[in-house]
Design goal:
It is a single chain. The chain is of the alpha+beta class and 262 residues long. The chain has a domain of 140 residues: Aminopeptidase (3-Layer(aba) Sandwich), CATH 3.40.630.30. The protein is built from eight helices and twelve strands. Strands 6-7-8-9-10-5-11-12 form an eight-stranded mixed β-sheet. Strands 1-2-4-3 form a four-stranded antiparallel β-sheet.
Length: 262
């Protein structure tokens, strides 16, 4: 990948001069290579990537926990189908339900119709994982995916009806996706970012890895420290609490970094 560093707001009082790291694929590279390096799509066209704290499940070593098994039993009545994007009906009725979900879940204006159109028409969506309630035949939910077997699957957006009777559907869809791609022999399922307490629900899978800026880590205590100490105004690699969770000093950690300037 080629990297660009886009300058963000500095804090001179704390010697913080941040840059957002953008990545661009080179010939011979695929999106799975970008995911493996810690990047997520910055555009639905996959033309630009950005380095983030994201989560992934190493599917070859995943084993269902007791909570995963409970969720799978509860969702046994949901029929799950993996459908290529070209074979799925993105009907106006479905889009309207997805937009209503987005406004209720993420807030007004976060996912306007124009953004949804860019997402579903972009290269970032190759398949959907669609769920149908076998009892009624009604749509139960749809997850929009990027799939590059056998290396990677990216669980991008998931939509379902919000209500007391469907409050468990979101976790059921994600758990069924983990099970589905583990059985299909896919290497990793990427689950998006984790910057808040609300996003920690994604860590219900074992093992779970997150990208901490220089390596993939399975240390849940490290992830929770990062989430709960956000905004403290210091470099992570100058934070004694964060360094105490690492296997070595910054110079040692650099040896494990995926990045090298030539």
């Amino acid at each position: 990948m080629k990297l660009l560093c886009s300058e963000a707001t500095p804090d001179y009082s704390r010697y913080l001069y941040p840059y957002v790291v953008w990545g661009f694929l080179e010939p011979g590279e695929t999106p799975a290579d970008a995911f493996a390096a810690g990047f997520m799509p910055g555009l639905p066209s996959l033309e630009r990537w950005y380095l983030v704290r994201q989560l992934r499940v190493p599917l070859a070593s995943w084993e269902a926990t007791s909570e995963n098994r409970r969720v799978l039993r509860r969702s046994a009545s949901l029929r799950c189908e993996l459908i290529p994007k070209a074979g799925f009906n993105f009907s106006p009725e479905r889009r309207a339900r997805w937009l209503a979900y987005a406004e209720a879940r993420w807030g007004p204006g976060v996912m306007p119709p124009e953004r949804l159109e860019r997402v579903v028409s972009g290269a970032v969506i190759t398949h959907v994982l669609h769920f149908t309630d076998d009892a009624t035949g009604a749509d139960a939910g749809t997850a929009l995916l990027y799939l590059e077997p056998p290396k990677a699957a990216f669980y991008y957006y998931a939509f379902y009806d919000l209500g007391p009777e469907t409050r468990h559907v979101g976790m059921a869809m994600m758990t069924r996706a983990v099970e589905w791609f583990a059985r299909a022999g896919v290497g990793h399922l990427y689950l998006g970012t984790c910057y808040s307490e609300r996003a920690l629900y994604k860590t219900q899978f074992e093992p779970m890895e997150f990208f901490n800026g220089f390596r993939w880590s399975q240390d849940l205590a490290e992830l929770k420290h990062l989430v709960r100490s956000a905004g403290t105004g210091s470099h992570r690699l100058e934070d004694p609490e964060f360094l105490a969770l690492q296997p070595g000093l910054p110079a040692d950690l650099a040896q494990a970094s995926r990045f090298r300037l030539t």
